[in-house]
Amino acid sequence: MNSSRLVLAPVFVLAAACGKPPPGAAPPRAVRVSTVTSRPVAQAARYSGVLEPRTQLDLAFRVAGRVASVGQLTRPGAPPRPLQEGDEVKAGDVLATLDLDDLRSSRSAAAAGAASTAAQVQTARTAYAQAERELTRARKLFANADLAQAELDRAEAAFASAGSSLASIEAQHQSRRDQLALSQSTLANATLRSPIDGVIARKAIDPGELVAPNVPVFSVVDVAELKVVFGVPDTRVNRVALGEPVTVVVEALPGRRLSATVSKVAPTADPALRTYAVELTLPGTDGLRPGMTATALLGDEGRRDAPVLPLSAVVRNPDGAGYVVFALREDSTVEQLPIEVADLLENDVVVASGLEAGQRVVVAGAQFLRAGEAVGVVP
Predict the structure, then answer these.
(1) Predicted confidence (pLDDT) per residue in 159-182, tens digit
(2) Which fold has domain 64-99+190-219?
(3) From CA 124, how far away is CA 126, in angstroms rounded?
(4) Least-confidence region, from 11-25, 85-99, 174-188, 242-256
């Protein structure tokens, strides 16, 4: 303990007895206090979020081109019409097709070129084999002194030329094959199909428009399963477990309670909000759509009486983990009380333990106080 405080304490007490503050001493810190009251609060904490599709795919053409057609929706008793946002599609359904005429012409030209060089490769291989046989024969004759050096040189030159020609035409043929494969791939990529069963959430093209490669033109969402994400404070996150069932209510479906499951709990807090993201997964059902507001009820439903304080009364424990409040004593000093926070209700805090109704606590100025400090209460 600070020795100067020990020396000043009797002086302060004496001055207080005389009704005057000690000379040069700072006046007590001004604070506002409030009496703790209990009131019925919901046992289940309510957290709101927005329904999102579990899977959302943004789809784009891999090649550039002009849109020839958009996929058709066919229904019994109704004429086909182009796909629109909100329409259901199945995996493999055609969403849109680019103009195929030029692409087909390119593929035909590439196929013809590949076929031509394939014939040339066969001819060159035959010539190479013939030149190889002639060289083998010439070398045997030359070894037996039955062939002049000039004839052997001509055979070796013919063999080298045949090999060079074969290599050249094989390279050309491979290039033509690559062109054919590219044209076939381009032709296949000119048709955009849905990879999943889902609903069209966005359609950004119409027939006749030019599209660039890799620019999303359709968004398809899977609404067979939806999710809702919200943030919970550190006082509650340890009470949320993966796989835990949670009741969800949706404003657009009054009177209905939906069953969801905790599918993800963030291991770290959001640096700005200081809350932990919790994700719930719930099956899609009639009437549920992405973008609707959903409220999750964490904990037992029902109500109970509990102390409720303004959020401004609660501060971090300066001596360790957790939270504290400062209760006012009879001698106008404050006592530091550790508390357990049960829940947050907008600008109020529900206290689980550490505080009782009737106690007077500091609700304005608590962040500046120390245990045992004298305060002056202001209205």
Answers:
(1) 999 999 999 999 998 988 888 877
(2) OB fold (Dihydrolipoamide Acetyltransferase, E2P) (2.40.50)
(3) 5
(4) 11-25
Q: How far apart are CA 68 and CA 100, in angstroms?
A: 8
* Predicted confidence (pLDDT) per residue in 12-47, tens digit: 333 334 445 555 567 888 999 999 888 876 556 788
What CA–CA distances, in Å, run from 361 to 262, 335, 370? 37, 9, 13
Alpha helices in the chain (DSSP H): 3-17, 101-143, 149-188, 234-237
As a residue count, the chain comes to 379
The residues near 332 (Cβ < 8 Å, ≥ 6 apart) are 28, 374, 375, 376, 377
Count other C-beta atoms under 10 Å from residue 190's C-beta: 22
Q: Report the SS3 class of residue 4.
A: helix
pTM of the model: 0.51
The CATH code for residues 21-41+305-377 is 2.40.420.20
Task: Show the CA angle centred on residue 13, arms to residues 11 and 16, nearest 5°.
Answer: 105
Q: What is the CATH number of domain 45-51+222-303?
A: 2.40.30.170
